[in-house]
Amino acid sequence: MNPYQHGEVFVTKDGGETDLDLGHYERFTSVELTKNSNITAGRIYYDVLIKERKGTFLGKTIQVVPHITDEIKNNIYRTAEESKSEVLIVEFGGTVGDIEIYPFVEVARQIYLEKGRENVMFIFVTLVPKIRVNNEIKTKPTQFAVKELGRIGIQPDILVLRCEEDLENEVLEKISMFCNVQTNCVMKAIDVDNIYKIPIYLHNQEFDQRVIERLGLLNNPIKLDNWYSLINKIENLNKEITIGLVGKYIELEDAYKSVIESAKIAGFHNLAKVKIKMINARKLNNSNIQEQFRNVDGVIIPGGFGYEGVEGKILAIKYTRENNVPMLGICLGMQLALVEFARNILNYETANSTEFDPETDHPIVHIIRGKSEQDEKGGTLRLGNYNCELKNNSLAYECYGQKIIQERHRHRYEVNSKYIKEFEKHGMIFSGINPDNHLCEIVELENHPFFIASQYHPEFKNNLTNPNPLFIGVSEGAAKYFGGYNTVVGIVTNLMIDLNITVPVAVHLDHGSSIESAKKAVDAGFSSIMIDGSHFSIDENIRITKEVVAMCKPKGISVEGEVGLVAGEEDGVHGGSAATYADENECIRMAKEGGIDFLAATLGSVHGHYNGAPKLGFEQMVTISSKADIPLVLHGGSGIPDADIVKAIKSGQSKINVNTECQDAFAHALNKYFANKMDQADKGYDPRKIIGFGIKETKRVIIEKIKLFGSDNKA
């Protein structure tokens, strides 16, 4: 499929090559779908043609109705039966009125007739444009589309209005009347800065409630704590990293949709905003590579086919290897990492893949065994899930934390095993091997911060709650501003010696994103670990936390666990909203079962700045503190009135985080520094003087907080 027309090809676990929309469904729902979940018109017509040639229709005239429509219906019914689902969501992509979609719309009408009104509902997503010249909202396109659907025999139960900005109630009422849809079933889906906010936005309009009522489903409590937690992370990212994506289809980002989304999701879990810089592999050369990679914190070399852009990707890999830039290679990216290494380290100047040079003297990569260079391209790929066994003490094993993994593939070429020993002699580690056919799956480089490449596509097995470990790895690698955990411990340790600091100092990992990151901090010498599993279910959160406790307790390292959502100022959830308060029973479970030393229970606080006055759950603090018998931690302590801080301490809070106020103090000091032109006098441009001015103001705030907390002169 042409990437410029279709975007990426998303691969399912059973090897289906599907539309990229299926990737969105997997990332949102955390459900692994199959190739049956993707039905195309081409496939339907092909299957009907094959049946006709086999005589299935006994020579009858082939018609759109019933032969094409029956084939579509049978595919839908088979998917429902095989998945054993209670509810099947069927998306008919297209535009009402287009000739291509008519067979599918007819199928929708027939399913409604066959299954009954009580078992089928129609949700129509429609665009409501705004004319910029006069700021007029146009509802006619929606009215005509609904009218056309009615002519075919379909009446929407819910309308979802795609629009750039909020719509007035009178617009919704107008659409409701002319489209014959209840007003409370006309929903808005306005443009948002992050697509993962859409479920919350629809939930706030009771979209889910309308579906439950219409289909007569069990009205169980809707639990969105994990989703709110994710949105809170997105709204409170505390660092920004830039990932360079070196590809040849960069004009259309959808060609790398899953890669881009996977990188962003991994960033969320590392509390980092990931910016993607698209770098054109076809135009990358020695004269512009320094400029192209300026301010790039990590690099991804994605998969692809064909020679165009290959030399640019090889040059990018060479740059990351020589300059210690974190690099993740995917599929072709792994193959080219080996070609680059062979050319520049093994001195095989003509090394190549037989895909690009069939006559190369050093075929580092060649066609998969059992295939042929002369085979037709269709149907010759290695597709879907395959096992991979990881090497102990490797970076891959560190990322995944298990011996056997299963990932999705889409490739026609493989690593030539006869060169493996030569690679290993020079520092290339083959850390992942397929245990069944012994094909190379993962390579990594010794003595490099993060240089790893996989034959499989990790972006296809990645969702919001379980980001793929390789993307987590490249995100964490790019986010280490201080050079890593060891550097931080070294700085603190030596400052204590040089400054003769006698009070106890804890080196604390805040919001540790995984067991692996906690282990790195422990190994480096951190004395306090917070493991944040709040975005998981309480059972999974406790399981992860217990593993960290088991690792830390023998070394005398304290562990802090977290339960509940810490809202952010942009969440749309403030003050007394239930979404900002942890469940008391879950908090008590974490304290009793997790074995932690401190509990960060979310009770009305906010990371960052507050939108309005904070409303802390003092009663819950007292209850949890007494029943759990554990010191509480108040995240988001900045901006809370002094009287409330004192009351929170009396209610059981033993540790209070005030990072935002410290950052504000530093920023305001620097604004004052430059506004007063202090940088223009007495060598005021010296970074040490500039930073020192900010530090002085930050220290003032810290001293005030120590006194407010009643902690002065107690060390």
Any descriptors?
single chain, 3 domains, Rossmann fold, CTP synthase activity, globular, CTP synthase, four-stranded parallel β-sheet, FBA_II, TIM Barrel, alpha/beta, 715 residues, ATP binding
Please give a structural write-up.
The protein has 715 residues and is of the alpha/beta class. It has 3 domains: 36-231, P-loop containing nucleotide triphosphate hydrolases (Rossmann fold); 237-473, Rossmann fold (3-Layer(aba) Sandwich), CATH 3.40.50; 480-709, TIM Barrel (Alpha-Beta Barrel). Helix content is 40%, strand content 17%. It contains 25 helices and 27 strands. The strands form 8 sheets. Strands 9-8-10-11-19-18-17-14-15 form a 9-stranded mixed sheet, with helices on both faces. Helix 23 links the parallel strand 26 (632-634) and strand 27 (653-656). The radius of gyration is 29 Å and the shape is globular. The termini are far apart. Mean pLDDT is 88; it is low at 569-579.
Task: Chart the SSEs and their pairings.
Elements: H1 3-6, E1 10-11, E2 17-18, H2 21-29, H3 41-54, H4 64-83, H5 102-115, E3 123-127, E4 130-131, E5 136-137, H6 140-152, E6 158-163, H7 169-179, E7 186-190, H8 198-204, H9 207-215, H10 225-235, E8 239-247, H11 257-269, E9 272-280, H12 289-292, E10 298-301, H13 310-322, E11 327-330, H14 332-344, E12 352-353, E13 363-367, E14 382-390, H15 395-400, E15 404-411, E16 413-415, H16 420-425, E17 428-433, E18 440-445, E19 451-454, H17 469-478, H18 485-498, E20 508-512, H19 515-524, E21 528-531, H20 538-552, E22 558-563, E23 567-568, H21 584-594, E24 598-601, E25 606-607, H22 618-628, E26 632-634, H23 642-650, E27 653-656, H24 659-675, H25 687-708
Parallel strand pairs: 3-6, 6-7, 8-9, 8-10, 10-11, 11-19, 12-13, 20-21, 21-22, 22-24, 23-25, 26-27
Antiparallel strand pairs: 1-2, 4-5, 13-16, 14-15, 14-17, 17-18, 18-19
Helix pairs in contact: 3-4, 4-5, 11-17, 13-14, 18-19, 19-20, 20-21, 21-22, 24-25
Keywords: Glutamine amidotransferase
Protein name: CTP synthase
GO cellular component, one term: cytosol
